[in-house]
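As a warm-up, study this chain.
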Amino acid sequence: MDNLAIFAGTSNPPLAQAIGEYLGIPLGRVNIIPFPDGEQLVKLEEDVRGRDVFIIQSTCAPTNETLMQLLIFIDCARRASAERITAVIPYYGYARQDRKDEGRTPITAKLVANLIVTAGADRVLTMDLHAGQIQGFFDVPVDNLYAEPVLSREFRSRNWTDLVVVSPDPGSTRRAGVYAERLGADLAIVDKRRVSGDSVEHGYLIGEVKGKTVLMVDDMITTGATICGAAKVCRQSGAKAVYVGATHAILVGNAIENFSTAPIDEVVVTDTVPVPQDKIDAIGKLKVLSVAMLMGEAIHRIHNDESVSSLFSMDNGR
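Now compare it with the structure written out below.
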């Protein structure tokens, strides 16, 4: 592991620290200097020549700042003659714009991929991309991990015997199906139509949830409009309890209000995006699990040229 170097940006220091602790190595020394006009200087304070460098940075809020910082980090490591540079992006921002739904709109998921590769990244490690095809937007290898093993382990410990996994919209059906298979549960789907960026309309429920414990799963929670609306549909259809599991807790806009009033018993998320304590307290039913061990193990295997695919299934790891 002497040839391994891990650096972290400012987006999620606790997760980066936990990953370093799992691997048993300290984070690399770096000096990030902001200028009054908003520009940033990133200076690595240790030699990376010929080393295998991993840069941990979620492109979460402030999204443009954290994205630019990641690009500067990569360029800095490349110009310092790192042997290989892996961008570790627990949460990949701009992923929702992955196709042209109408004329004169961008495909930002591809744009960001181009920026990362052009900056000098040789590989990308991320988690629960909003759309799997984004891996094909990169011209370098991409390892897209899933938080499902972490979340499934938590939900299995509840010993539910009447569980139904519900997809909050048709687009999440495949993800919900994976959880249903892992947990030995039935599957249901809530119909959803998006009205605007923060407003959705929910229709009918496909499946049976009456008298059942419902688990809704999604890759991210932004304002919570989709999840909370689907929870109301499930409750109206006779569900006795509703739980939510998601990877990325973005929690912006009126998310706190939505969850505070929604008929949801508990929301379980991961720390791919930092969740401030005040938001945890305000929502009152939010539990945060760590993906540090999963991402740390992936870094260990990439560094040692070992298989990463086995981490996609449950209960694997060192």
